[in-house]
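Q: Give me the 3D complex with flavin-adenine dinucleotide.
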Amino acid sequence: MDVTTNRSGSDYRRQAVTAELKSYLGPQEYAAPTTLAQAAEFLADGDAIVLAGGTDLMLQTESGQIPYRKRLVNIRRISEMEGIAKYGDEIRIGALTTMTDILGDELLGVTTPVICQAADHFASSQIRNIATIGGNICNASPAGDMLPALLVLDAEVELISFDGGSLNRRRVPLNGFFTGPGATIKKPAELLSVVCIGIPEQRATARFIKSGPRPALEISIVSAAMSAFRDGHKLFHVRLAFGSVGAVPLRATATEMLLEGETLTARLIEQAVEILMAEINPIDDVRATAWYRRHLASVYLRRLLIDDD
Ligand SMILES: Cc1cc2nc3c(=O)[nH]c(=O)nc-3n(C[C@H](O)[C@H](O)[C@H](O)COP(=O)(O)OP(=O)(O)OC[C@H]3O[C@@H](n4cnc5c(N)ncnc54)[C@H](O)[C@@H]3O)c2cc1C
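A: Here is the predicted complex, encoded as structure tokens.
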């Protein structure tokens, strides 16, 4: 008997079995809100799980990797979370925007083609048709393809929640959003509503590279993105980000600092590789060894800097 709670061992066992059974049986409630405010209300008690395209969530819940919560909130009917539009000097991408939407979007193709490149390397057409940008971010996989591309664009995300009877919004930079594999600073009661990107300067260029043994349907072994503008042999406003080289998608800020405003020489490139190797912390897993990931990251950095295919 636990004297502090007055509960016996069998009480605890019953509670554990009930929790396991509930998770096994799936959610007890289903909600399909049509507005952001309704969705935030359904999430307010923190005992709900969001369903967007379901391409990550269904596999994770059905395999038992993550447990269901009490309520499943299907957000796909919320039209406020759809669409790509320019507002002043920024582009706002609704969290429900799919990879297919991104690939076909003229505004993104002209202003931020690096996002379209990432969408083009993403899974298969079938998955691209339902996988959302919000899901890719909230799933927080170190291998998420959109993430390095968004990081080099200094993207921010808007999180909404229901607080004291009203809708609360906070905007946070994507750099710092990820705290570990599958983990972010987003609270369980928060919904990611929109991704915001400042329109890059016209002279800025950006590029995304991803590796995998097959060209399609492949989770990256390493992915890399860079944004900068070149003035002669010098790089300015350098942003570098890598996927699958550590616990979170990584902005390589020390490497960026070394390169900023400097003349690109063979020696500088090798120094940059050296610094990058100290910034990344890849692991061995079924897809590749840590050694191979380091090798690929160094090759990709050289390619991005030389701007070579
Ligand atoms: C066959 C296959 C191939 C794949 N290939 C790739 C690939 O090449 N590259 C890649 O990056 N990924 C790949 N994935 C993973 C997956 O498709 C992406 O991560 C996708 O973007 C997830 O989006 P979704 O809308 O399906 O999210 P869901 O599965 O619905 O949700 C994912 C997680 O995010 C949460 N969530 C979703 N939207 C929100 C929101 N707006 N606010 C708060 N929480 C939210 C959910 O609760 C869940 O925890 C692949 C998956 C499969 C099955």
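A quick observation: The first helix runs from residue 9 to 25.
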